[in-house]
Amino acid sequence: MNSQHLIESVVADQLKPDLEFPVFSVGDTINVHVRIIEGEKQRIQVFQGVLIAQRGRGVNRMITVRRIVANEGVERIFPLHSARIAKIEVVRRGDARRAKLYYLRDRIGRSRRLRDQRRGLKHVRAEDSRKPAQAEQVEQVESTEPADAEVAEAATATADE
């Protein structure tokens, strides 16, 4: 057993299971529940912000979360497998096209916001989810509907009565 395998086996015991973390990516707004220890007391503090970077792998995996407090940007870097992180929740999925969102540091106001990932995908998902046989049935149903002229005649006939 070489030294690399030995190190990975020791580190594997320190990793948190993958099921403990939700699936998140850069651009998402997340809540990081951090354990704060003050003397003998322990409490949970929630840090909500936009995930602007991920780096490392294994035990060295880190995330950078940015939020705005009193018009000042605050960034915290969290080791993902730290015992101080109680849990992570995904609040909102953001649509990011880059691996690192450091450009958000220079943005002010509404330009700082990221587009929602679900935005504009409703019609695409609806069309893709239908099977070809279902699409043909929908076309047949549409062709059996009465034409506009027939609907107008029926409406005038009921109005005359």
Write a short abstract of this structure.
The chain is of the alpha+beta class and 161 residues long. The chain has helices at 3-12, 122-129, 132-144, 148-160; strands at residues 29-38, 41-55, 62-69, 72-79, 85-92.
> Which value, in Å, is the CA radius of gyration?
27 Å
Order of helices and strands: HEEEEEHHH
Envelope shape: globular
The percent range for helix content is 25-40%
**Low-confidence runs:** 123-127
Written description of the protein model:
This protein has helices spanning 3-12, 122-129, 132-144, 148-160, and strands spanning 29-38, 41-55, 62-69, 72-79, 85-92. 27% of the residues lie in helices and 30% in strands. It is globular, with a radius of gyration of 27 Å. It is of the alpha+beta class and 161 residues long. The protein has 4 helices and 5 strands, in the order αβββββααα. A hairpin with a 2-residue loop joins β1 and β2. Mean pLDDT is 79; it is low at 123-127. It has a 5-stranded antiparallel beta sheet, with no helix packed on it. The longest helix is centred in the last third of the chain and has 13 residues, at 132-144.
